[in-house]
Structure formats: structure tokens, C-alpha cells
Design a protein that fits this description.
The chain is an alpha/beta fold and about 625 residues long. Helices cover about 25% and strands about 15% of the residues. It has helices at about 30-35, 50-55, 65-70, 70-80, 115-125, 145-150, 220-235, 290-300, 320, 335-340, 345-365, 380, 405-420, 450-455, 505, 520-530, and strands spanning about 45-50, 80-85, 90, 100-105, 130-135, 165, 190, 200-205, 240, 310, 335, 370, 425-430, 540, 550-560, 575-580, 585-590, 595-600, 605, 610, 615-620. The protein binds alpha-D-glucopyranose.
């Protein structure tokens, strides 16, 4: 292989567009990449940092921004292109920071605004871009707007920033409609008037502490535009938009007795789907009006010349509805949850890939691929269940316990599918270590509002704490080295905010970095090859080995060809054949290849690919004359 230099951070310091804040990172010039320059996010591998659980810089048991700064060399070594940080803003943390009280400041638990600036510049110096989380559907009830709204009269401008309504029933004692909160219980809470009498109700699609904003109000639009600029001026490279399908509610707030499940779906679909006249089943999700907002935001981002992007967290269905968020002039990316929920199953994975490629082509967008995040059971645990397509909302001690050895083997194979696909890929912190969920966490430790809101109901949910357990950095340190700053500090670090399972010891980063055969080194190798061969912008084709009925997912990605933009020299064609065996029997491999990577040491048995394994086979063809 003679790889072209790739993803090298530019040595030319770009000018900060608006302020003296950290300089944004520029895209390497097209000549270095041997192809016309794409926006950086098109093929980026983006690593999700969940700040409270990534690395603890001040030994208080809670992760923080100084902890992230300390681990930038680790992320650089892994070879990702960007970080997405879940919210680190001022928040009472009733939903782990997705309840924001001040969008323009850092919560003292996580550090200071100066730490955020330092993280942006440290990451940029290391060639990593930074995406921050934006939570526009709701604020915290501690936000000054909501405090003001509660103190104000019904019908006042302060109340009109949220969704307040009089109750129904003879005395307004019943909620304005029948909507349920995604986290369980009603989506409405009644307020108390200043004189102590019961007052209006306010809408919260999530926890009571997360009042929904009124996106029919221009003041809300102006405020979020200003928040975007605040972070863009500080040099961030994009925004992950929380519940991007939620901000606009159907006119008149019509009744809806059903439920929506996080990530998995947004309500029950009708049997017959009419693409042209599709009406979303849920009156508070995927309403057409949300697209207006993204067109506005796209215009704001376009004023900045460092190619900032918007990525939608939108659990919508069918798949074609998702791609409406990435039409030209709207968002740049959307998480591919159809791929995430397809499990370790060749047919379902095939369908998710094919449908995503087809729908992306309709709107002229590129794809993203993701296996886990802070709202899902980690795929190592999901793939270790008897049914590796199951999608539990959390795993508790009394539930079926996954086989994590099998789950990790499958997860490594799945990573080879994910990272082989053209487009952008999202990793959740710990994917690269093969971390499972904590599946026996005691209830007393649980913080997820879903657990607390449903625990005494007919449909109790375990919640998402199991996938949010603090990262293990050093096997033999207290808290498996979660307190990354503790080496210098004399005091013993506080216990991590959630206990880690014993199996994290053997999976700690110091047991894997530079250790041949480790999951970390597998990821690093895949990311290196992906970068060198520009797989993220390659051409996809199902291969002759593809056979979902037998459990085989196989495709080729071809890059290169054409002439070097600078010298005019012909460029060889590179083809990578990705082969994943999700079936029960060993399967044939190609006869000719120049190099190969296998998901496990014992993946190749008698020149066949073993079940629960995957491989990349590389081949170079001579340049066209
Ligand atoms: C998103 C977040 C999730 C949060 C919810 C409410 O789905 O990913 O963690 O609880 O929004 O903000």
C-alpha cells in the first residue's frame, strides 16, 4: 500500500473568523488528499465523550473537562477525527446534564468556561475537532426563563416561552391532554400560583424538571441562534442536536394515547406507508415545522468558514423520514439508529445499510453509522444475549445476563462492518475497549429519571445507567484509574459516581493500548487503514460473498483511481472487501488479496472465516494507463 497522506492537521493556522477565541481547524488541502476536498465531517470518525464518565481530572468521582484534556493524547492515538461531548453546561443534573440551566457556561462539576476553551484548543492542536451538544427542545426548570415564567401571570410573555395550558376537568384538575412523558408518567405538571392555589400546567416530554420550550415563539429562535454563535465563536466545529425531531408540536396539541421509545421508534407506524402524504404517528415528533428551524441554523453555520456541522438526534421512522433532516440546506448528518437497532443479524444489518444508502442518495446526503451511545445498552452486552437482535431498555441483575465474551467477539466483528462503510462513524466512549454495560448495578446507585419515574408502575424500566459507568483507565488503580489526575494528587480519589463492574479491570486502557490483539489495537488498526485508504469516501457495492440468508454480510469499498491532482500521475485503485460472518458456519474467503485484518486471532480456521468474526481483505489494482 502506498497511502496518500491523510487527515494530517493543517500546519497553516487559520484565522479565527469572529473573535480572538481558539483558532478553528481547517481541512487539509485537497491536493494532500488526492481528491477534491469534502467537508471534514463527510467521512469523519467521531468519538462520543460522556463527560461525567470519561475521565476525572480533580478526583471528586465525577468526570470533567480537565479529565478530557488529559486524555486527548489517548484519543489522538486511537485515531479518531473529532469528539462529540454530551452536555457539560450548568445544570441541576436531573437528566445527567440534558436539563440545561445556562447554555453559555460550564457546570462547576465539569470545570469552567476557560477549561472548555482549553479543551477546544488542545483538541485542535491534536488535529481533533469538537462537537458540542445542544438541547433545544427543553430547558432545565432551573433556567432563568422558567423561573421567570413560574413567577409570571398566565398569558404573559414569560410564560409564552414555554408550553403552559389551563387544565381540563371542572376545576382544571386534569392535564390539558393525554400525552405521556418519554421517561414515564404524564407529560404535564401543574403549577402553583403565587397565592398557593393550583395554576396552569406545563408540558415536559421528558422529566418534570425539563419544561418544553415554545418554538412558535420568535424569542426562542433568537435565543438559540445566539447560543449557536456563542459556541461557534469559541471555535467549536459542530452541534449534536438533542431530540431534533421534537421541538414543534402538532397544532392544537391533539390527543395521543400511545408511547414513543427512545432511539428505537417514535410511535406506532401504520401498516401502509404513503411516502408522499405521511403523517407522523406522534403529534409531538417529526412535525414539518422542525425543518424550518434547521434551515435557519444552517444559514447561521454557513457564515463560518471552518465548516461547522449539525447532527440530528432524531428517532423517526420510516428511514426516509430521517433523511429529510439532511436535505440540502438543513442538517449535515443524522444518527443512523436503524443501523444501531439492527443487532447482530445479517438480514437486518443488510436492510439497514441498503435502506440508508438508498435514502441518502434520494436527498444527496452522506451516511453515518453508530452501534451504541449513552441511551442504549452497549452492543457488547446486547450481542451477548440469547437473541442478539434484542433491544432491552437496560439490563438489571434479575434479567437474562449476557455472555460478554461472545458479545465482545461479535462487537469486534460489527466494528469492522461499521468502520468499513463509507460515510461517517460515531463511536461511544469505551467501544474501543470492548466495554459491556454494568448489568448487575444495584438499584440504589441508579440516577436515570426513567428508572425513578417508572419504578412503581406497571411497566418499570431499568434505565440507562448501565452504559454510563465511568471508564477504566488503569487496572490496578482505585476506580480503575478513573481519576486520571490522581497520579499527581496525594489524596485518595473519591469513588467514581457509579460503581464499575469487576470485569472492567481486565478491559482497562492500560491493559490494551500497545497490546497486540486487544480491542483498542483492532480499532486503531481499522482507523489507520480507513484513513489511509479514504474508505469513508469510497464507493460501496455488495460483494459476491454477500449472503444474508447464511448470515454473511459482505461488501467492497473502492477508492483511488483517476489522476493525482498535483502531479497528474495515475492513482492505483484500492479495494477493501469487508466480510462478516453473523451465521453459524465457517464461510469462504477471497483467494486473492494483498493484506488482511481479522477481528480475532482465531477468526481464520482452515482458510475459512469462523462464525462471529469479520475480516477486511485489501487489494490494489494497477493504475489505469
Ligand atoms: C436525548 C438524550 C438523552 C436525554 C433526552 C432528553 O435523547 O440523548 O440522554 O435524556 O434527549 O434530553
Amino acid at each position: 500500500m502506498t497511502p496518500a497522506p491523510h487527515h494530517a492537521p493543517s500546519s497553516v493556522p487559520p484565522t479565527a473568523a469572529h473573535t480572538g477565541q481558539p483558532a478553528p481547524l481547517s481541512t487539509p488541502p485537497s491536493e494532500a488528499r488526492n481528491r477534491p476536498s469534502n467537508p471534514w465531517w463527510v467521512d469523519a470518525v467521531i468519538y462520543q465523550v460522556y463527560p461525567r464518565s470519561f475521565a476525572d481530572g480533580n478526583s471528586d468521582g465525577m468526570g470533567d473537562l480537565p479529565g478530557v484534556i488529559a486524555q486527548v493524547p489517548y484519543l489522538q492515538r486511537l485515531g479518531v477525527d473529532a469528539l462529540w461531548l454530551s452536555p457539560f453546561y450548568v445544570s441541576p443534573q436531573h437528566d445527567a446534564g440534558y436539563d440545561v440551566a445556562d447554555y453559555r457556561n460550564v457546570d462547576p462539576r465539569f470545570g469552567t468556561l476557560a477549561d472548555a476553551d482549553e479543551l477546544i484548543s488542545t483538541a485542535h492542536d491534536a488535529g481533533l475537532r469538537i462537537i458540542v451538544d445542544l438541547v433545544p427542545n427543553h430547558t432545565s426548570w432551573d433556567h432563568e426563563w422558567f423561573v421567570e415564567a413560574l413567577a409570571a401571570e398566565p398569558g404573559s410573555p414569560a410564560r409564552n416561552r414555554y408550553v403552559f395550558r389551563p387544565g381540563t376537568g371542572d376545576n382544571g384538575e386534569l392535564p390539558p391532554n393525554d400525552w405521556s412523558s418519554i421517561f414515564g408518567g404524564p407529560a404535564w405538571t401543574r403549577t402553583e400560583n403565587p397565592d398557593g392555589t393550583p395554576g396552569e400546567w406545563y408540558l415536559h416530554l421528558f422529566d418534570t424538571s425539563q419544561p418544553d420550550l415554545n418554538w412558535e415563539n420568535p424569542e426562542v429562535h433568537a435565543e438559540f441562534e445566539s447560543i449557536l454563535r456563542f459556541w461557534l465563536d469559541r471555535g467549536v466545529d459542530g452541534f449534536r442536536v438533542d431530540v431534533a425531531h421534537g421541538m414543534i408540536k402538532a397544532e392544537g396539541l391533539p390527543p395521543y394515547a400511545g408511547f414513543a421509545n427512545m432511539v428505537k421508534d417514535a410511535g406506532d407506524l401504520p401498516e401502509f406507508i404513503d411516502r408522499e402524504n405521511f403523517v407522523p404517528p406522534t403529534p409531538y415528533f417529526d412535525q414539518d415545522g422542525v425543518h424550518e428551524i434547521y434551515r435557519e441554523w444552517n444559514r447561521v453555520l454557513a457564515e463560518y468558514d471552518h465548516e461547522p456541522c449539525l447532527v440530528a438526534e432524531a428517532w423517526v421512522a420510516p428511514v426516509f423520514r430521517l433523511f429529510r433532516y439532511v436535505r440540502a440546506g438543513e442538517m449535515h448528518q443524522a444518527f443512523n439508529f436503524a443501523f444501531l437497532v439492527s443487532g447482530f443479524d445479517a438480514q437486518r444489518v443488510t436492510d439497514a445499510i441498503q435502506e440508508s444508502l438508498d435514502e441518502a442518495a434520494v436527498v444527496g446526503a452522506t451516511n453515518t453509522w453508530v452501534l451504541s451511545n449513552h441511551d442504549t445498552v452497549r452492543h457488547v452486552s446486547r450481542f451477548g444475549l440469547a437473541d442478539p437482535t434484542s433491544y432491552p431498555e437496560g439490563i438489571a441483575a434479575e434479567d437474562e445476563q449476557p455472555d460478554h465474551v461472545l458479545g465482545r467477539r461479535r462487537a469486534r466483528a460489527a466494528a469492522m462492518v461499521e468502520l468499513g462503510l463509507p460515510g461517517s462513524a460515531y463511536l461511544y466512549q469505551g467501544d474501543e475497549l470492548g466495554l459491556p454495560d454494568h448489568t448487575t448495578l444495584a438499584d440504589e446507585h441508579r440516577e436515570d429519571p426513567t428508572f425513578h419515574r417508572t419504578r412503581n408502575t406497571e411497566a418499570p424500566e431499568t434505565g440507562r445507567d448501565g452504559c454510563r459507568v465511568p471508564m477504566p483507565w488503569r487496572a490496578e488503580a482505585p476506580g480503575y484509574g478513573f481519576a486520571v489526575g490522581a497520579a499527581e494528587a496525594s489524596a485518595t480519589p473519591a469513588d467514581p459516581w457509579l460503581p464499575q463492574p469487576e470485569e472492567y479491570r481486565a478491559l482497562a486502557a492500560d491493559q490494551q493500548v500497545d497490546v497486540a490483539g486487544s480491542t483498542f489495537e483492532l480499532y486503531r488498526e481499522l482507523l489507520t487503514i480507513r484513513g489511509e485508504l479514504d474508505l469513508g469516501t469510497g464507493a460501496f457495492e455488495w460483494s459476491r460473498f454477500h449472503d444474508p440468508a447464511q448470515g454473511i454480510v459482505s461488501f467492497t469499498v473502492t477508492t483511488g483511481g483517476g489522476k493525482h491532482l498535483g502531479s497528474g500521475e495515475p492513482i492505483p485503485t484500492q479495494t477493501v472487501l469487508v466480510l462478516a460472518n453473523m451465521g453459524a458456519s465457517p464461510t469462504a474467503i477471497p483467494e486473492e488479496y494483498t493484506a488482511a485484518v481479522f477481528s480475532d486471532d482465531d477468526a481464520l480456521v482452515n482458510q475459512q472465516l469462523a462464525p462471529d468474526s469479520a475480516a477486511w481483505f485489501m487489494k490494489q489494482s494497477a493504475p489505469e494507463a
